Amino acid sequence: MFYTKARWNVSSHLDRAAPLAASALAALLLFGSVAPNEARGQVASATAIFLMIEPDSRSAGMGNTGVALADNANAIFWNPAGLGFQRGTEFGLTHSTWLPKLNAGLYYEYLVGKHHIDGVGTVGGHVTYLFLGQHECRTANNVLCGTFNSYDLAAGATFARQFSDRFSLGTSVRGIYSKLADGRKNLSVKPGISVGVDLAGLYRSSTFDLGGIDTRARAGFNLANMGPSISYLEADSASAPDPIPTNLRFGYSFTFDFDEYNSLTFSNDFTKILTDVQEEVQGDSLVAGEPRPWYEAIFSSWRSIQVDPNTSDTDPGRKLSVIDQLLIGVGAEYWYNQLFALRGGYFYEHPFNGNREFLTLGAGLRYNIFGVDFSYIYALEENNPLANTMRFSVLFNLGE
Question: Three-state SS across the chain?
Answer without folding.
Answer: CCEECCCCCHHHHHHCCCCCCHHHHHHHHHHHCCCCCCCCCCHHHCCCHHHHCCCCHHHHCCCCCCCCCCCCCCHHHHCHHHHHHCCCEEEEEEEEECCHHHCCCCEEEEEEEEEEECCCEEEEEEEEEEEEEEEEEECCCCCEEEEEEEEEEEEEEEEEEECCCCEEEEEEEEEEEEECCCCCCCCCECCEEEEEEEEEEEEECCCEEECCEEEEEEEEEEEEEECCCECCECCCCCCCCECCCCEEEEEEEEEEECCCCEEEEEEEEEEEECCCEEEEEECCEEEEEEECCHHHHHHHCCCCEEECCCCCCCCCCEEECCCCCCEEEEEEEEEECCCEEEEEEEEECCCCCCCCEEEEEEEEEEECCEEEEEEEEEECCCCCCCCCCEEEEEEEEEEC
